Amino acid sequence: MDRSMKIICIQCPVGCIIEVEKEGEKLKIRGNECKRGKEYAMQEMENPKRMVTTTVFVEGGMQKMLPVRSEEEIPKELVKECVKELASVKVKAPIKCGEVIYKNILGTGVNIIASRDMEEK
């Protein structure tokens, strides 16, 4: 056996505990109650991804910080670097929810967008 792990599936409210064993190129997956759980377990073993949520500084806004998020998931190993990169970003109010704050973060092809409106002071 090359690698085995247990994961809690987050694809639906059931929260199955899935056991995954990797032997060479083969994956054995047990414990999932639905197809989404199997797909999630496969992704976690082969290429784990996560959404990024953080804040960036705002100039001239009603608040000093703006919540932002990634439009899509990015590779898990890039999450800390992504947050570090966004820590130096400053945007100017006004900002609309969904507005792109940072294009193509770390060359992933994923944009970072505003999670809320920010009015000018």
How are the secondary structure elements laid out?
Layout: E1 3-8, E2 17-23, E3 26-30, H1 35-46, E4 49-50, E5 53-59, E6 65-70, E7 74-75, H2 79-86, E8 90-92, E9 100-102, E10 112-114
Parallel strand pairs: 5-8
Antiparallel strand pairs: 1-2, 2-3, 4-7, 5-6, 6-10, 9-10
In short:
This protein is an alpha+beta fold and 121 residues long. The protein has two domains: 3-46, no CATH class; 53-114, CPE0013-like fold, CATH 3.10.530. The protein is built from two helices and ten strands.
Description:
The protein is of the alpha+beta class. The protein has two domains: 3-46, no CATH class; 53-114, CPE0013-like fold (Roll), CATH 3.10.530.10. Helix content is 17%, strand content 36%. The chain is built from two helices and ten strands; from the N terminus they run βββαββββαβββ. It has helices spanning 35-46, 79-86; strands spanning 3-8, 17-23, 26-30, 49-50, 53-59, 65-70, 74-75, 90-92, 100-102, 112-114. The strands form three sheets. A five-stranded mixed β-sheet has the order 8-5-6-10-9, with no helix packed on it. The chain has a three-stranded antiparallel β-sheet with strand order 1-2-3, covered by helices on one side. Strand 5 (53-59) and strand 6 (65-70) form a beta hairpin. The radius of gyration is 18 Å and the shape is elongated. The mean pLDDT is 94.
